Amino acid sequence: MKLLSIPVGVSDFEEIRRNGYYYVDKSGLIGELLGTTGTKVTLITRPRRFGKTLGMSMLESFFDIRKDNKALFEELEIAKRHELCMEWMNQWPTVFVSFRQVDGLNFNSAYDMLTLVISELYKKHLYLLDSDKVDSFDKEIVKQLIQGTASTKDTKGSLMLLTRLMYQQYGKPVILLIDEYDVPVAKANSNGYYEEMLDVMKGLMQALKDNQALCFAVITGCLKIAKESIFTGTNNFISDTITDSRLNEYFGFVQSEVDQILKDADVLDKAESIREWYDGYHFGDFDVYCPWDVMNYLLELQRNPKAKPVSYWKNTSDNAVIRSFIDYAGSNITGKLETLLAGGTIVQRVDENLTYDYLHSSENNLWSMLYLTGYLTKAREEDYNGKLADGTVALMIPNAEIKEIFETTVIKWFDDSTKKCNRSALFDAVWNGDSENLTKEMNALLRRTISYHDYKEDFYHAFLAGIFTGAGYMVDSNKEHGEGRSDVVVYDPINGRVAIFEAKYTKSLDKLESACDAALQQIDDRMYAEEYEDDYDQILCYGISFFKKRCMVKKKLAKT
To answer: Boundaries of each AAA-ATPase-like domain copy (predicted)?
Structure first.
């Protein structure tokens, strides 16, 4: 494998280019945006980890009048457009601000983070304090914004003020770049101060409305929040989402780019596994790989050429969206999740104009959320052949990475929901040796689980152990004793009793009973119960067999 300088976690365009890091040329985005300069505001929404911040950093580097970055764009696609570069490259006052750090458990702490972001933004423009084109009243507000002591009114108006002052300074209208505009309201919705934060963000976004100092604005985010919710009164406004095709090749890697990356790294033999794990997103007319995953995996391959693909979303994304979705919808969505986990498609209405406070108002909104945040993607025609009604989309899990996230999240949800259930009837059946009621209670719990197209014994083992874990019992899994290993042993030392479970999995319903008998026979043959005879008054041995969401339990009383 050839060693490439892979910039994982670096979203600063200038840092990447100056240090000679590997860069996939996305400069064509500049020409596409300048082709619609009659549009004042362009909102670009994509899932996280698809290169939005790097794209915005590139735009700042290209337009900012205070920079001279011609060398950074040499040999990139945009450099071939000489007249465009003469007119636009480093010729315009530019403001770039990101709200991705605005977070807090309550409004005051989040607002403090927001005022810090505004303060740091103004520190990049300290020259305004020395300018004879800025009056003393505005300079005083600038000082307060830098110090973090400005009023809420002035904080809300800070972007409008900055664009006006820069217009006065340079005599040219300003290009405004706002990254991750929806993070503050998303965090606010999760922590219970949505209305307060929405009010502040509405104020900041007034810089987009009837602003004579504005040349044009580009905004990025994860969701297209309904225009009337945050962009009230903003005219000349267009959005580009994952259902559109104009800009999608500039966010994520298309197949030709991945082919070139693998060729440059001399790892063409990894093409299929990378496709299986990190491809599968269908944005507009483009099939797209997640760039974060591709670059992380290439970096890992440089360290360990035998490395297998893993999920890089697990520790970087807010997978709580899946958990909150399942908690809200419960059994209503079980069948659909089972279809998705089996590699199938579901048809749902998708609304791109969501507001965070209404995400949980309907099941359709939640499916829309999973689609817009990249956990589901639009199925291609070959994946879904039926006729779709207007406003509906055939959805599927895009790749192995996201499927793994769904599976682990669903299993964790089931474990937690099981612990919340009233299991007293089940426990009574265990200690009373009532295999008939135990079978009934076990089946009721199994019906609450999510089906898999490839049931594994590990699933049933975890299911069985999870029933008793956290319920006041000591639980051993695969404990070594006798002449083998029983699956699960449950101890109740206070009452001097122990229950031994041996589980079997069968591939057909008609073999449930024979598998159950085989489990009991194994307990006998391998003498699982003998070691407990001196310490426990009651030893209960159970054979249990599983088939999908069905089970059978039989009991053998070893000692009373």
So the answer is: 7-231
Helix (H, G, I), strand (E, B) or coil at 475: strand
Q: What is the enclosing helix (H) or strand (E) of 457?
A: helix 457-468
**546 in Cβ contact with 443 (< 8 Å):** no
User: Would you list the domain boundaries of the chain?
Assistant: 13-248, 252-303, 320-403, 421-557
CA-to-CA dists, residue 305 to 1, 11, 430, angstroms: 8, 26, 50
Residue 225, SS3 per DSSP: strand
Which residues are 225's β-sheet partners?
354
- Of the candidates 235, 222, 237, which has an alpha carbon nearest to the alpha carbon of residue 183? 222
Model confidence pLDDT, tens digit, residues 391-415: 889 999 999 999 888 877 776 776 6
Cβ distance 40 to 300 under 8 Å?
Answer: no
Residues 451 and 365: their CA atoms lie apart, in Å, by: 24
The DSSP symbol for 495 reads G
In this prediction, residue 454 carries a pLDDT of 54
CA 39 to CA 223: how far, in whole Å? 20
Rounded CA separation 168/487 (Å): 76
- Distance, in Å, from the CA atom of 25 to the CA atom of 150, rounded to the nearest integer, reads 41
Pairwise CA distance, residues 541 & 172, whole Å = 83
Say which amino acid occupies 225: I
Pairwise CA distance, residues 213 & 219, whole Å: 17
491: which residues sit within 8 A by CB, 6+ positions away?
473, 474, 475, 476, 498
**CB–CB of 23/253 below 8 Å?**
no
Give the type of residue at 461: H
Of the segments 43-52, 64-73, 368-377, which one has the largest average pLDDT value? 64-73
Q: Tens digits of per-residue pLDDT, 30-42?
A: 999 998 767 889 9
Cα separation values, 39 from 170, 204, 221, Å: 22, 20, 18
Element housing 115 (H / E):
helix 107-123
Q: Was domain 13-248 assigned CATH 1.10.10?
A: no
What's the rounded mean pLDDT across residues 342-350?
89
**553 φ/ψ angles, rounded to the nearest 5 degrees:** -120, 135
